[in-house]
Design goal:
By secondary structure, this protein is mainly β. 0% of the residues lie in helices and 48% in strands. The protein has one domain (13-254): Sandwich (Jelly Rolls), CATH 2.60.120.10. The strands form 3 sheets. Strands 3, 4, 5, 6, 7, 8, 9, 10 and 11 form a 9-stranded antiparallel sheet that branches. An 8-stranded antiparallel sheet has the order 1-2-18-15-20-14-13-12, with no helix packed on it. 33% of the residues are buried. The model has no long low-confidence stretch (mean pLDDT 95). Bound molecules: (2S)-amino(carbamoylamino)ethanoic acid and manganese (II) ion (MN). (2S)-amino(carbamoylamino)ethanoic acid is lined by residues 185, 193, 197, 203, 237, 251, 253.
Length: 261
């Protein structure tokens, strides 16, 4: 929180194809199925995004979740969760993974379209969660995916673009049953994306650690830990890390589907 007498100058930018949203600018929301939780709505269709992303802080002993959405057309809502801090458990709604999965910082889960999700914070510790939800896009002849549970510490860091100073972790398998990717980039200070990329896929990006400079649209902008960035289709984008520690960010990308006309 800033001192009360400070100026309110902000790095916040909202443009048709991107938004840079530092965390300090989000008022709290409350959600009926997350009683007691502090919710920040990072991205939504109202911004231009094809998905919804939340930052949810559950108090110690708190519970929340999403009910099964009951759609029979294969276009149910899929849910990705990533734990920023704290501990607790996650229970999936149906199928053969209906058990309880421990949650700790770095744990993640992707639940298939339509499934219920139930999360509990440990009695003695709160839980801070990034949650992304989107409508699943079925594809003819392709089986929808089964639930994925993991921990980022168990996902290999692969050298990306022939640069050992840029490492990519692919949390969700790169298979056609999945219509999204969730990846973590780690860049050593001074390194980043080697080009300005421009592509049809959109991103919901949460800055996990460090700081750097992001190119969005046609401007370079400073970014740091806890910033959220939405990049819409064809938003020119690039990045390099600055500061004393490696920069890490978790990002969503819609993939593997034909573009509707
Ligand atoms: O996968 C990507 O599109 C990634 N290279 N984009 C990004 O980090 N902004
Ligand atoms: Mn990209």
């Amino acid at each position: 929180m800033r001192p009360v007498a400070s100026l309110v100058h902000s790095r916040t930018r909202v443009r048709p194809r991107y938004a840079l949203l530092p965390l300090e600018g989000f008022p709290d929301s409350r959600l009926p199925t997350w009683p007691g939780a502090r919710v920040r709505v990072l991205a939504s269709p109202a911004l231009g995004a094809g998905f919804v992303q939340y930052l949810i802080d559950l108090p110690a002993g708190g519970r929340g979740g999403f009910p099964a959405d009951g759609r029979g057309d294969g276009r149910g809502t899929e849910t990705f969760c990533y734990v920023l801090s704290g501990s607790g458990t996650l229970a999936g709604g149906s199928g053969d993974y209906g058990g309880r999965h421990p949650l700790a910082a770095g744990a993640f889960a992707l639940l298939p379209p339509g499934d219920a999700v139930a999360v509990s914070a440990a009695p003695d510790a709160g839980l801070s969660l990034l949650v992304l939800r989107k409508r699943y896009e079925p594809a003819a002849g392709v089986e929808p995916f089964a639930a994925v549970f993991g921990h980022e510490a168990d996902v290999p860091r692969q050298v990306w673009a022939d640069n050992p100073h840029s490492l990519l972790q692919t949390l969700v398998p790169d298979e056609l049953g999945f219509d999204l990717a969730m990846n973590i980039f780690t860049f050593s200070p001074g390194f980043g994306l080697p080009v300005v990329e421009t592509h049809v896929m959109e991103h919901g990006l949460y800055f996990l650690q460090g700081k750097g400079v992001y190119y969005l649209g046609d401007d370079w902008m400073e970014v740091e830990q806890d910033d959220f960035v939405w990049m819409g289709p064809y938003c020119p984008q690039s990045f390099y890390a600055t500061g004393p520690v490696p920069s890490r960010y978790l990002y969503y990308k819609n993939v593997n589907r034909e573009i509707e006309v």
